[in-house]
Write a structure and sequence with these properties.
The chain is α/β, with parallel strands linked by helices. Helices cover 50% and strands 7% of the residues. The strands form 2 sheets. Strands 2-1-3-4 form a 4-stranded parallel sheet. It has a 4-stranded parallel sheet with strand order 6-5-7-8, sandwiched between helices. It is globular.
């Protein structure tokens, strides 16, 4: 059953009792102190629009846009309110062709989103071409390697990943879109670690260009569903589907809900984060590096997949691990959130950086298992590494 203008489930909308236990876990509320920037405030606004007929005005749209979708509130909620599902449904309603005119974003944003979501992210060749253009602009020093864009290397872009053909290995490695174009070195480290764990990683077949995670965040549900069906078709069989991007893993583990088919549910059950998968394999032959690493939990690994502890399990034999005192609060990346809400994303990141430096000192090494978090925190001057890279660095000679 769905409700009014937003089409949300009324039972889910009224399940929030406004107890306030979510407030300390909401990064935007922590920064602004505004009720409308909190989970219960946003749900109250959704309820007013969907059940009481309140208008979809500029303040409502701004409040929904200013949510990072970290879903830390879900982990803290005693009533089990599915905030992520409510927010995704709201954004889908705001992005729909028939949405009220006041819900429309500025023309520049609409044009940029149309190009990115329809043509770039969904087509690997287009994304690679755009990445080569970015590389050339970096070489000409017209685009700096900051503000969310890493320093690109031609050798990395040219050299494909050394993966087995589909059906010839025992575990798929999801390569994805932006991560394959901008952070292929992480995938290379993942391949080395998977082989050291005794596996033969294989490439998916055609159709794995993008998992649709960013589209779900943006409310582009129909495109996300199309991409999800293609991803499922690209990895037939029952081999594990290993993901080294926390955001992608969270989205793929939710394909059952996104598509509502038994096949999608079965596929989602095969999806596993890299660190989680490694805990099912024989222990890696790692050397003790003697180095200290601060662990930063991506929200979609900690709050959605609930698979953040395996990162510590696999890194502990090689590194001395430090924990932040902020209970896994978001870093502010949030997919494309840092692009469209840079001021708020920066304020959230400042708190995370302070928490990291409070335990790791002025120049800490940070472990983070999500590409968006890596880019966002590196832009603040931190040395952030993916757990796969740290593990590859610590492989004993016999494990390489």
């Amino acid at each position: 059953m769905s409700g009014g203008a937003l089409g949300l489930d009324p039972d889910e909308l009224v399940s929030c009792v406004a107890c306030g236990l979510c407030l300390p876990h909401c990064p935007t509320y922590r920064v602004t102190g505004l009720e409308l920037a909190s989970p219960r405030g946003r749900i109250a606004a959704m309820r007013a629009v969907d059940l009481d007929g309140a208008p979809v005005d500029a303040s409502f749209v701004a409040a929904m846009d200013a949510c990072i979708q970290c879903r830390g509130c879900e982990a803290a909620c005693p009533s089990g309110v599915p905030f992520g599902r409510l927010m995704e449904g709201t954004r889908a309603a705001l992005a729909a062709p028939g949405a009220p005119a006041r819900a429309r974003r500025p023309p520049v944003r609409r044009a940029a989103e149309a190009v990115a979501y329809r043509w770039v992210l969904t087509r690997r060749r287009v994304l690679r071409g755009a990445t080569w253009v970015l590389w050339a602009l970096q070489r000409l020093r017209l685009v700096p390697a900051r503000a969310g864009v890493p320093a690109l290397r031609a050798t990395d872009l040219r050299r494909p990943l050394d993966l087995a053909a589909p059906g010839t290995g025992d575990a798929y490695l999801v390569t994805g879109c932006v991560m394959d174009a901008w952070q292929r070195s992480v995938h290379r480290a993942t391949v080395a670690v998977m082989r050291a764990a005794g596996a033969t990683p294989m490439h998916p077949g055609p159709g794995d260009d993008c998992c649709g995670a960013l589209h779900v965040h943006a409310g582009r549900t129909a495109t996300a569903q199309r991409l999800a069906r293609a991803v499922i078709a690209s990895m037939p069989g029952d081999a594990p589907v290993v993901v080294d991007s926390a955001g992608c893993g969270a989205a793929m583990r939710d394909y059952g809900h996104l598509l509502g088919t038994p096949g999608a549910v079965a596929f989602s059950a095969r999806v596993v984060d890299l660190a989680e998968w490694l805990t099912t394999r024989p222990p890696l032959a790692l050397r003790d590096t003697g180095r200290t690493v601060v662990v930063q939990d991506p929200c979609h690994l900690r709050h959605v997949q609930r698979a953040h502890l395996p990162v510590r399990t696999v890194l502990a034999p090689a590194y001395r691990l430090l924990e932040t005192a902020d209970d896994g609060l978001c870093c502010g990346a949030g997919g494309a959130f840092a692009v469209w809400e840079p001021e708020l994303a920066g304020a959230v990141r400042d708190r995370k950086v302070a928490a990291i430096r409070a335990v790791g000192g002025p120049a800490p090494v940070v472990a983070s298992a999500n590409p968006g978090c890596l880019l966002h925190l590196r832009a603040a001057g931190l040395d952030v590494r993916h757990p796969a890279e740290l593990l590859a660095d610590a492989l004993a000679p016999e494990g390489r």
